[in-house]
Amino acid sequence: MNQLEKKFLGQLKTRKLVARGDKVLAAVSGGPDSIAMLLLLHAVQPAIHFELAAAHCNFSLRGRESDDDERFVTEFCSSLDVPCFSVRFDTGMAAAEMKKSIEESARILRYRFFETLAAQNGFTRIATGHHVSDNAETLLFNLFRGVSLPGLVGIREHNGRIIRPMLLFHKEDIRSYLREKGVDAREDSSNALDEYDRNFIRNRVIPLIEERFAHKLLPSLSRLSVQAGELEEFLELHFEELAFREPGLVFQDNQLEVQALKRLTVFEQKEIFKRALREIGAPVDSRTLQKLADLLQSSPGKTVLAGRKLTVQWKGSRLHFKMDKT
Fold first, then answer.
1. How far is CA 235 from CA 80, 88, 230, 232, 284, in A?
2. Residue 215 near residue 73, CB atoms below 8 Å
3. Which of 197, 199, 195, 184 lies closest to 68 in space, CA to CA?
4. What is the C-alpha separation between 201 and 128, in angstroms, rounded?
5. What's residue 231's pLDDT?
């Protein structure tokens, strides 16, 4: 086991990402990050004693190149004697049906496939190859979308059965490891296109900032991500205690008590609203949260439109949330 493999093994154990007896499904696109992750998992498998399989999604977005990626992953997994599950999607059609971007549609399709495989085959962990730079991209992407402070957590190392064992590794670590192993991974040509927001951040924004502030951006964003995670953990405990002390803050029958909300700070009010919106499947954005906070400063009988399908009315002593199902 080389130095990087030992470091990887140590992180899996320290962060409790994989344990003896786990069944791990590795998401493998064929790119350097996921191929390196699969190699590392395969290398440390005897030390932890877990089962390993791979999953590949062909999104049919790059014609022959997509098919070549699928073939490469299948053959590479076979060379390691790792079972491989693959699927093909008509992502363009799915995006039209879901009325979402190609990027978002591909993400939804990918994780649905992984969860289906997990349910059918008993996988306890789904591993993705996100690394330090991916986390930086996600933080900046979320920042530009206007998320709140807790929303700057970035990519979580552990979220349910999803794990990101590469999250502390840098791109150069990954490429050096592949060179040492003599493995040529696939390169997605669409990664060079700036038409996708994440690509633009990766190809244009981050290099420009790094040029001016060398070796400062990624560590700074990493620290911010950790601090945001700590804040989120604190807030979860805080709001559990609030709900215990103030039953009117518990979102029941799509209602919240006005006077209980008024006793809170604006920040707390918005956090309560955020949780309520998520519970009924409504979109959460800063403008909507501000509208709801402003509603508390009005008077009974007032109604606001919070998004295209959600109305919130102050009726009696409560706010009533109503989603249009049509």
1. 44, 41, 9, 5, 17
2. no
3. 184
4. 20
5. 85
Burial class of residue 245 in the structure, from the number of CB atoms within 10 Å of its CB (0-12 exposed, 13-18 middle, 19+ buried): exposed
pLDDT given at position 104: 87
94: tokens are 């799915």
Residue type, 238: H
> For residues 45 and 52, is the Cβ–Cβ distance under 8 A?
yes
Q: Two tokens at 55?
A: 């999953």
Q: Give me the average pLDDT of each 10-residue run along the chain (326 residues).
A: 91 92 96 95 96 96 92 96 95 89 90 95 95 83 76 80 89 92 84 78 87 86 83 87 89 93 93 90 85 93 85 94 81
Gap between the Cα atoms of 290 and 267, Å rounded: 10
The pTM (predicted TM-score) of the whole model is 0.74
Quick one: tokens of 215? 């070796």
Say what the alpha-carbon torsion angle 134, 139, 142, 148 is, to the nearest 10 degrees: 150
315 DSSP assignment? E
Distance CA 270, CA 261 (A): 10
Task: Provide the CB-side half-sphere exposure for 96 (13 A, CA).
Answer: 4
Contact assessment for residue 83 and residue 53, using Cβ atoms and an 8 Å cutoff: yes
Query: Residues for the chain: how many in total?
Result: 326
Residue 26's SS3 state is strand
Residues linked to residue 55 through DSSP beta bridges, in sequence order: 27, 85
168: helix, strand or coil:
coil
Q: Is 323 exposed, middle or buried (0-12, 13-18, 19+ CB in 10 A)?
A: middle
Token reading at 195 = 């038409």
DSSP per-residue letters across 211-257: HHSTTTHHHHHHHHHHHHHHHHHHHHHHHHHHHHH-GGGS-BTTEEE
Helix (H, G, I), strand (E, B) or coil at 19: coil
Looking at the DSSP assignment, which residues form a beta bridge with residue 166? none
Q: How far apart are the first and last CA of the chain?
A: 58
Residue with token string 């996988």: 123
